[in-house]
Amino acid sequence: MTIRLLIVDDQELIRTGFRLFLQTQNDLEVAGEAADGHEALTQAAVLRPDVVLMDIRMPRMDGIEATSRLTTAGSSPRVLVLTTYDLDEYVFGALRAGASGFLLKDASRERLLEAIRVVHAGEALLSPSITRRLIEDYATRAEPLRPPSRLLAGLTPREREILLLVARGLSNPEIAARLVVTEATVKSHVGSVFAKLHLRDRAQAVVFAYENGFVLPGGSG
Q: How, if at all, do strands 51-54 and 28-34 pair?
């Protein structure tokens, strides 16, 4: 299967560099490029990419706004945010907007390829450092939030347990080992949690869990 990509960055040299490298991969196709968020929306509607590599700081419309609009549209692509800026406001803004991953531009080529393929497969690329910063951010809340009772009622005890472990950054194999079940069983539970809570992927699950008090800083939940 070929993964169709849209590269969004206001710097032409960066777009060209990404395109030249990514086109060397047999399973990747650069379908198009865009210089800002407005152009990204137009190009995405025409080209229907599978994954969008999205810069954040751009003229006219930034990457966070463009990501939000892309991920709320029908048949929306996965968005992998690529930025020079490792700042909390961008990390949180991108994840809340619906991005499936967040990667700094100085990441290795191998890491970039891995991120594209992971995001395309429906997973999320959340490094332990980003998960830790989410925890630290919500630790500053004076009064932890509590999730609506209807949401809790909709999840089985096992699904709540799965959500807690996903929110703490564990992968499916790690969850399977922790709960002594098969990876297929974990994948089924994760899919059920996402469906019931209307979540796209792990990135949204992590943000949802902390914002709604399913898991609290310090490991409780």
A: unpaired
